[in-house]
User: What shape does this take?
Amino acid sequence: MSSPATDPLHSPPNIVFIMSDDHAAHAIGAYGSVINETPHIDRIAAEGARFDNCFCTNALCAPSRATILTGLHSHLNGVLTLSDEIDGRQDTFPKRLQAAGYQTAIFGKWHLGHGGNADPTGFDRWSILPDQGLYHDPEFYVDGDLTRFEGYVTNLITDFSLDWLDARDRERPFMLMVHHKAPHRPWEPDEAHAHLYDDIDIPIPPTFDDDYRNRSEAARNAKMRIDRDLTFTDVKAEVPEGLDAAGRKHWLYQRYIKDYLRCVAAIDDNVGRVLDYLDREGLAENTVVVYTSDQGFFLGDHGWYDKRFMYEESLRMPFLMRWPGQIAAGSVVETMVSNLDFAQTFLDMAGVEAGPAMQGGSFAGIARGEAMPDGWPDALYYRYWMHLSHHHVPAHYGIRTRDRKLIYYYGEALGTRDSIEQPTPPEWEFFDLDRDPMELNNVYDDPAYAGERVALTARLSALKDQYRDER
Assistant: This one.
């Protein structure tokens, strides 16, 4: 079967890219969630493909977004931490689509700076939140001008997106980025979902009471524990008196996770609005729809509530893609992909040449059920740069293969913005993901893994060189 990238008689597909913030895959029904339901998001998987091994290269909002736009690792696109602004003069996939005749727009969270070269480029229309933005009655930069809107941010982002689609040129393809703020902290639900889950207890994850034994000091010292580090602003209430330690932790978890899931429910409803619009307008058959998040999130896993680490719950991104006539309904893709590949994948779908500096590859063929391209990487290179700031996670880099993971906490700020200039002792972690999928047992010093450890350390060094990471 020919694809839009190779068949000149096939009109280029429209692309709708829906991205949330901090939405972990294990809070999506299509990924087997035991804590919530997401029927509209699940529809994308049911009518398309679910990617089970999609990962980010830096589990932070701004760096992930920059990598998605540019197809470059953080050290090359310039966005290493939350304080770095993107240089909009560099090559991006929206710019290439725009130059090829696509109508382009982005609405919602940008988080890559504002003003000068940091404003969105490559878009015909943009309305973005300042920094994180507010959940209720938020302000948006509308093509540069700051304006306040009444309403709930998730609904408004969808409103802007559908209004733009209504006003588009029907004779040209479009690429629309719908970037939700939710479910990022401080987890403020809308009125429609404010009492969802009131009468039930959300199940706790199996690693909820992780004691961090046989792990790094980095895991023990991280300041993202539900029982210790959640704030009054996060849970919006005082902890009841008279609870023992276990009861207090359980109460905090229920307060946090229910508001998180209520924010997810609003996203799901709005994904349904977008899908219904595409159906109603006769656009569904020639529109690629993607749902993803900028990284994963700890949903009580290991007793935590943030991200940053290279552990699975933080590293793994949900990625669901519907492409009628190209992707078989209900497909499951096991091949490893990453946000480094998104730019080239979308360009390939549109029949547009990728930028020569882009470091990923196109998985459009993989999504269609074709064989992996020759040389498709079987290992992911990850690097977290923001040393100790916010949640006391030391800077680290590592490699993940299908069944192994090696992490090096080098523990230095290296002059990066929004980092703390306080060295931490270097540490290594090595996990056998087949035997230890929850990453509770660091086998770095286990003699049985000595040969694998040496080989994987060499592969990590080679990946670092391959991606031109020289720091």
User: Anything to note?
Assistant: The CA atoms of residues 412 and 423 lie 5 Å apart. Confidence is low (pLDDT under 50) at residues 1-9. The first helix runs from residue 39 to 46. The longest strand covers residues 14-20.
